[in-house]
Design brief:
Elements (H helix, E strand, L loop, with lengths): L7 H17 L7 H19 L10 H22 L17 E6 L4 E2 L3 E13 L2 E4 L3 E7 L2 H4 L5 E6 L3 E2 L11 H6 L3 E7 L4 E7 L3 H20 L3 H12 L7 H10 L9 H14 L9 H19 L4 H18 L6 H15 L7 H21 L7 H28 L1 E3 L2 H24 L4 H27 L4 E3 L5 H20 L2 H26 L2 E5 L7 E6 L2 E6 L6 H13 L3 E6 L8 E3 L4 E4 L2 E4 L2 E6 L12 E2 L2 E4 L7 H7 E2 L2 E4 L5 H14 L2 E4 H4 L2 E4 L1
Parallel strand pairs: 5-8, 14-15, 19-21, 20-22, 21-23, 23-24
Antiparallel strand pairs: 1-3, 1-6, 2-3, 3-4, 3-5, 6-9, 7-8, 10-11, 12-13, 12-25, 13-14, 16-17, 17-18, 18-19
Helix pairs in contact: 1-3, 1-12, 2-3, 6-7, 6-15, 7-16, 8-16, 9-10, 9-11, 10-11, 11-12, 12-13, 13-14, 14-15, 14-17, 15-16, 17-18
Amino acid sequence: MIEWKSFPFVRFLIPFIIGILAYVFGHLHISFIVLVLNYVLCIFLHLIYKNKKVRAYRNGWITGLGFQVCLFLSGNEIAFLSIDQNRPEHYTHFYDKGNAAIVRLLEPPIEKNKSFKVTAEVLSIGQGSYQHSTCGKAILYLQKDTAASKLYYGNILLIKNAFQAIPPPKNPDEFDYKKFLYFNNIYASAYLKKDNWKLLPINQSNPLFDLTFWLRDKSIEAFQKYIPDTQDAAVTEALVVGYRDKMSFDIMQSYAAAGVIHVLAVSGLHVALLFSLLNRMLFILEKKRYGKQVKSLIIIILIWTFALLTGLSGSVVRAAMMFTFFTIGKNSNRTISTLNMLACSAFIILMFKPLLITDVGFQLSYIAVLGISELFPHINRWLYRTNKTVDFIWKTIAVSLAAQIATLPLTVFYFSQFPAYFLFANLLVIPLSALVLYTGIALAVFQIIQPLAKILGSLTYGMVHFLNYYIGNIRELPFSVLYLSSSTIWQSLLFATFILLLIRLLITREKLYLFGITITICILFIISAYNLLHIKNEKSITVYSFVGKSCLEFNNGGNAVAMKSDSLFNEQEQFYLRHHWQLSNTTITDFIPSDSASDETAFLQGTLWNRDQFFQFYNYRLLKINKKLPFNSSSYRMKLNAVIISGNADVSVNEITSWFDTPLIIYNGDNSTYRLNKWMKECNGLHIDTYNVASKGALKISL
């Protein structure tokens, strides 16, 4: 039985989080007046129940329930206030109020292939001397030139008002960048050519952030100077200061496949490694008077200094706060529960940044620490050992296993994959990444001493190079990643319930948990069977949305045939297609060449027929025009369900309608704006329905 009195912050946190989620996902906002009245009522009831003359203390639970409602309402109100767009002065309400805006850069620009990307605060929008004072953040993409490369945090720019709303995802199962930015209070972006902006002779910066960006940039300079390989330097930057913008997509995928992607995001692991090192180095202070207090103060200062070095990233701030509470708790004479400490730190963080509840890193870090604190002692007892090396290896395995078990439902829900060799990978990666962290920090600190910096750079380079080699080989092992189909939030909650019940069964051996496990498995089986039946009945045609490319898919009960354009798909686009087909339980049985054969060909057990550019899938008839019409004349108008125009085909809508009777024309993503406008104008005159996948996103036609 859980004694909730021992975990006050857990009791505070649960209704507070529910209140945040009610607004963030349910868009439920309860008036601030209701919150105030509820607090007044609770205080009034509390005073009555505390009065012994009234003798109403037996109903004190009503006050407790009232305070739980207060916490729910507080979370709801704080979440509402945290959405910048709810403020009347937000810049998105002034799009049409002028052709210019004044912005302040919130970070140093990040170099991309064709532009510099930077997050900026919109200070005002207007025209000429008249400006509307505004607030809110936006992403700017500045055309590459010398002037843009010299911009820095705190610069004030006068820019053209070219803001556009962040577009939603264009394809099914695509990463929702719009939602991600929404939870970071960013709602619009703008592309600025070199003559669309001007640097103003003023600067507005926070000295603390000036220091953090300066420390980070100096550290990155040291890594780039003393680590010869570009990718090894990029991995070092990610491991030590959390800067991942220069890492290749392939390296990121290798770390994800090996189950060690967490080492590339400076977070609780890195702070824990630093805390462990400092705790051992300063043990001598414990023998002095007030030594424990001095030691704790030094550790807290150095941990927050490391947080500054990493640019005060959200994950490091969370971890630094957790270890600050832990350090303070160790020096008090009271026994402080790890669970209560975690709840306290989460409660304080969410009070100031409630939208962090949507951050995957926030969720994973807290769940992982909770899993380690609760499961590690039990797993650690599974193996009796006396050898120190065996003890170290087993403890590393126990920590990795505890964290992986705890985060498994979230990992499956967000990433739909499971790294099969995560234990094997973490066995070497955790201690090696700790050494890289220590030598990397030392390199950043002692870079002015060139001989020492060269030695530290060589050591760091050697370890990181071996680390990349080791992880790359793990990725190449058979079945290194177990790919799973997509799961809903309810399936993930049921899976989490199953794991929790299984853990309790193994610890307590109570039959009640076995009954709960059986019920949970049955529900999961029913849901899975229903989803499988839905997939088997799937009959659909999907026209995907890719810039400058085309992709067409015919799906028959989970087996599909795809037709891609000749244009090469980049790594991210290929990864997306593989990931989408994996999530939707789709098996691609054939690829049809873009220049379809003139001979009649059948696919998908005869349900799909293809000849030239004609397709018939069941009773649905489709013509895909790549360059020109497949013939020059026709004796009758063939009836079609749709026509797809691709590759800037040299054809007019009048020509198409003179030979084909079609109610719908679909424009692929590889057509020019000029031709699109021309075709759209023709279709409007002929009253033909059109669909442009470049602007509207992928089109799925269910039969």
